[in-house]
Design brief:
Helices cover 19% and strands 38% of the residues. It starts with 15 loop residues before the first helix and ends with a helix.
Length: 571
Amino acid sequence: MNTTLNLDTSPDQVSREDFTAFFDEFLAKRSVREQSVVRGQVLEVGDEYVTVDIGYKAEGVVKRSEFIRDGVLTVTAGDSIDVYLDQMGEEDGLLELSKEKADLVKAWDEISKAAEREETVRGMITGRVKGGLSVDIGVKAFLPGSQVDLRPVKNLDKLIGETHDFKIIKFNKKRGNIVLSRRQLLEKEREEKRNETLKSLKVSAVMIGTIKNITDYGAFVDLGGIDGLLHITDMSYGRIQHPSEMFEVGAQIEVKILKFDEDNQRVSLGYKQTRPDPWEDVEFKYPVGAIVRGKVVNVVDYGGFVELEDGIEGLVHISEMTWNKRIKNPNKLVNVGDVIEAKVLDIDAENKRVSLGMRQLEVNPWILVADKYPPGTVVRGRVRNITDFGVFVGIEEGIDGLVHISDMSWGQRIRHPSERFQKGDEVEARVLGVDVDNERFSLSIKKLAEDPWLSVPARFYLGQICAGRIVNKADFGVFVELEDGVEGLVHHSELVNQDNWANQYADNQEVTVEILNIDAHDRKISLSERSATDRARGGDMNEIIKRQRDSSTRLGDIMGDLSRRMRERSE
């Protein structure tokens, strides 16, 4: 029967079969609406299209490409799927459907419900856009840079590809605008953790935390909703230059609560405090006299620091590095990174100091010098240094001997050693002694010759008339050199010109004097110019001096020979 049916047709005008077909078509039209998501069954999967039955008189097709994910076809004949119906045009006998549009519509519906219920959505960050990031939550959404994390993120690109939960803070379906926030979720999570952490947070407690950030002065550790500062000085008992030498962001570490300001919620942490202090038994591990081995970790002007173990360093002072006193720069002997051996000289556990010595592992050259140069030995060397009190003469590498200003001449008055010596001058001297403990080598130049005062009684006598030259002036008179190493004093009362005498007599001026007194033990001779002048009035002064000199020479020869014989006999 081909009767055309409509809602005004009377039931007695059609057969039962026609009415049933009409009613089924009516129901199908009511469930299938244009621009809506409908349910259908896959009838066939072709090379270009997938044929779908949506319960309408005409079948629909979906592009095969819409079912391909990562190169894999995700649909087979018989599957039930949701598709989007754009319009019901049937000119070619098929309905145009879209799987992608259906997914998009469903996603918007789900996101709309989540926004109304203030639920979180999960999505993957897909790219960088102006002001923030693009997130795929089924549809495209915007994540502002200020809402990415609790702290500003400098490099947003590193987050691309990560999947997180987000809160919808702005939703407009008509404009297709969705704004997300991850920060609000993190803040809520942090607040929950903070409340839980505060229950167990107290000074001296040991907790597990996560490194959140590293700076030049320390690291910030997340204890669970509350951050604590681990200062660089509390990281290790040893020496570190930067916190990154020990830790990296994201690492979990065990820390001890050192301070807790509850009002400002500031927490100071310690890492080294969770381990025993290595200085507690340092005196047993490194007793004085022990030979130790360590790495040089720092070199300064006054020496080098050697790490014996984590937290314990010893100082090798430059004076304890070598026996050679001329080395003034520690870098000439050690450098950072060198592994050296040294001897423990002293331990100060209270102040955490260990004194080490390197030279103590070598033979003391001063012992060798003392054996090699006994007192009386004549040595030669060059002047290395000149001071106010003497000159230092290089005898061997690193060994200098001192010629004190008082040991330069028996009688010559020397105001400063530079009057007689310059650096580089070669000199000969006699060894007086070697002090091994104080590392001193004493020399004498004047003792290369015999002390002239030993024979003064043999060569000079009371009443003797002598010619000499003025070598020094004092407030009480002038000193006259009678011969090399022998001087006498003419008191100003014994001078001929007593009025304004200081200006009447000059250095190196020749004068004739008479010997009034001789004290060889105290090395003193008293002279008189006035007495010599008075005697000259009774005869020729030159003749008097000549006769006395001849007589003195004969007596001197006799006394000198006697003195020599007595010295030889005693030897």
